[in-house]
């Protein structure tokens, strides 16, 4: 059992819970229970009740007719067999080829003929002569679907569409997304029907066995830009934006500038089509990076942003800061660690454990995975976040060494943390580079005086703005910040610029923001990349962004109006009841 099999499970269970699915069945090896439910939590099972219909009675023209099941059903057909098989590496090939259960489906017996075999199998296994011979032994009437690293199809088409439209506004800040093609070697060839998997490819088993490709993605950036240009005021607002900039927006090929901030996930709670959950990459130099939080799907976001450069970027990550232990901030960590280890081997680099700054409780989760699935602890050097607080007592010798290594590797003059107002053991952080720049990251928090003190005179504040103005009570209940509260923190901090992120997924495309937003404030989008030199340009993007998402903004403003009216009625009702009681007259 490894992360490739169980990595999405926790996120899926949380999503099922949010959608009010009452029960769920988990089936797997014994370690699955230990991994998912270390505290002896129990999950109920879906109860499936199947009733066989033998006959119906129908009243027609006053006559009670008996209709038998065979009159309703199509003629009986042999059961359709399909097999889903995972062979993760060459060490499993002999076990697969010699498996007696699978062997009986290779015989020339029509009742045992296999319609489809799904191979979750790396290319190295497919090219092995033993596996190839076994695969071809099923004959020409069996279809084979390959799911592995050679999949070249686009995923998350909505993200690509939005990014193409944003790229038209500013090509440097919103670069086009890339597609990751990890293998450049020739694929294995077979004498039987073999199909490489694609996103939304379907195989129909009944009534006719056939591939269905009508739902496959067709990525066409020019078409998406043309759609945007049809929107009222969009083209004019983009032109006005470009004219307001001192020069025409630079292309993505512009000379590198550092630090470079790449927003990989700017939503909260659960991943959505447009915004993934929390993750921000700070590229300190061409060879050193720090990752701030690591929510579910962070590796996929890196692949879409960097394409074939993904292994190089993974090797560049020197440290990861995890602000707190909520699923939207840490469940992508294991895949990043595993993929980084693979990338180091692929690039021919020596084993180089990553420095992990996080609440100590995170180690419980890592130990659980290490003990039940696969080796992971050798990929990290743990620095408890509380050891980086101001005047902290670092009583573990190893931690002192790791902190010194963090400063040296990243050329930091200071890396400091502070506790913030969210859940227990939630932290924000501040990074001060030797060249003088200072980046502060809030994590999840309500307005926090300690964060303000730590972040004084920051070059950039990245602050959560989960909720819109007017939802202060809900923000307190959920221990988050509103847009204006986040901006106020930045002003009190005297930050040179403020980037807002971690928006509620109710603002899937764009959050509501004040009309008098400061020239020092920007709204983060997934795959947005900014340098300090872009701070003057970012506020000027608001006009075309409002034109691009005008329908969404109108809908959100309508919801806000209804909410404010409801609040007003709730506030007035007690007063009306009081007046009615004293005047002994009902106004209702």
Concise structural overview:
Homodimer. Interacts with PTCD1. The longest helix is centred in the last third of the chain and has 34 residues, at 550-583.
Task: Write structural notes for this entry.
With 588 residues, the protein is of the alpha/beta class. The protein contains 22 helices and 21 strands. The chain has a seven-stranded mixed beta sheet, sandwiched between helices. Strands 15-16-17-18-19-20 form a six-stranded mixed beta sheet, with helices on both faces. The longest helix is centred in the C-terminal third of the chain and has 34 residues, at 550-583. The chain is globular and about 80 Å long.
Strand order of the largest sheet: 14-13-12-11-10-9-21
Shape: globular
Distance between the termini: 65 Å
What is the SS-derived class? alpha/beta
EC number: 3.1.26.11
Main location: mitochondrion
GO molecular function, one term: 3'-tRNA processing endoribonuclease activity
Keywords: Endonuclease, Hydrolase, Metal-binding, Mitochondrion, Mitochondrion nucleoid, Nuclease, Nucleus, Phosphoprotein, Transit peptide, tRNA processing, Zinc
């Amino acid at each position: 059992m490894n992360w490739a099999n169980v990595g999405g499970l926790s996120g899926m269970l949380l999503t099922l819970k949010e959608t009010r699915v009452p029960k769920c069945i988990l089936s797997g090896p014994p370690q699955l229970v230990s991994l998912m439910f270390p505290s002896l939590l129990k999950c109920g099972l879906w109860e499936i009740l199947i009733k066989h219909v033998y006959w119906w009675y129908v009243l027609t023209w006053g006559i009670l007719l008996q209709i038998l099941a065979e009159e309703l059903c199509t003629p009986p057909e042999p059961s359709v067999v399909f097999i889903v098989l995972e062979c993760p590496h060459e060490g499993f090939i002999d076990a697969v080829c010699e498996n007696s259960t699978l062997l009986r489906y290779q015989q020339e017996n029509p009742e045992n003929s296999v319609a489809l075999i799904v191979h979750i199998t790396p290319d190295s296994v497919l090219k092995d002569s033993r596996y190839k011979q076994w695969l071809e032994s099923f004959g020409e009437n069996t279809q084979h679907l390959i799911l592995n690293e050679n999949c070249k199809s686009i995923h998350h088409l909505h993200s690509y569409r939005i990014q193409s439209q944003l790229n038209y506004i500013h090509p440097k800040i919103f670069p086009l997304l890339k597609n990751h093609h990890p293998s450049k070697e020739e694929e294995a060839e077979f004498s039987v029907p073999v199909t490489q998997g694609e996103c939304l490819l379907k195989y129909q088993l009944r009534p006719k066995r056939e591939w269905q490709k009508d739902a496959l993605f067709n990525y066409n950036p020019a078409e998406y830009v043309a759609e945007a240009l049809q929107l009222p005021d969009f083209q004019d607002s983009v032109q006005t934006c470009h004219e307001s900039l001192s020069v025409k927006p630079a292309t993505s090929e512009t000379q590198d500038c550092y630090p470079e901030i790449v927003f990989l996930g700017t939503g909260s709670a659960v991943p959505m089509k447009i915004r993934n959950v929390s993750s921000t990459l700070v590229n300190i130099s061409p060879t050193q990076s720090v990752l701030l939080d690591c929510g579910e799907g962070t590796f996929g976001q890196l692949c879409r942003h960097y394409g074939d450069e993904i292994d190089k970027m993974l090797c560049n990550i020197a440290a990861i800061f995890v602000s707190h232990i909520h699923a939207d901030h840490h469940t992508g960590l294991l895949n990043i660690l595993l993929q980084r280890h693979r990338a180091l081997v692929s690039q021919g680099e020596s084993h180089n454990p990553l420095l992990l700054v996080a609440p100590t409780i995170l180690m419980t989760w890592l130990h659980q995975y290490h003990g039940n699935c696969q080796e992971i602890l050798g990929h990290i050097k743990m620095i408890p976040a509380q050891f980086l607080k101001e005047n902290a007592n670092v009583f573990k010798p190893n931690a002192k060494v790791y902190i010194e290594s963090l400063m040296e590797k990243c050329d930091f003059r200071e890396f400091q943390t502070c506790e913030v107002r969210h859940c227990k053991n939630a932290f924000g952080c501040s990074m001060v580079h030797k060249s003088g720049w200072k980046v502060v990251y809030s994590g999840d928090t309500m307005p926090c005086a300690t964060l303000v003190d730590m972040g004084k005179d920051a070059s950039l504040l990245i602050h959560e703005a989960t909720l819109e103005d007017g939802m202060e009570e809900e923000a307190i209940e959920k221990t988050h910040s509103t847009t204006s509260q986040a901006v106020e923190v930045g002003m009190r901090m005297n930050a040179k610029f403020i980037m807002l992120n971690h928006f509620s997924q109710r603002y899937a495309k764009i959050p509501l923001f004040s009309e008098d937003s400061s020239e020092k404030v920007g709204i983060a989008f997934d795959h947005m990349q900014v340098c300090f030199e872009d701070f003057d340009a970012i506020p000027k993007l608001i006009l075309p962004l409002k034109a691009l998402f005008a329908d969404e903004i109108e809908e959100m403003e309508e919801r806000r109006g209804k909410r404010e009216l409801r609040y007003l009625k709730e506030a007035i009702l007690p007063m009306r009841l009081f007046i009615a009681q004293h005047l002994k007259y009902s106004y209702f």
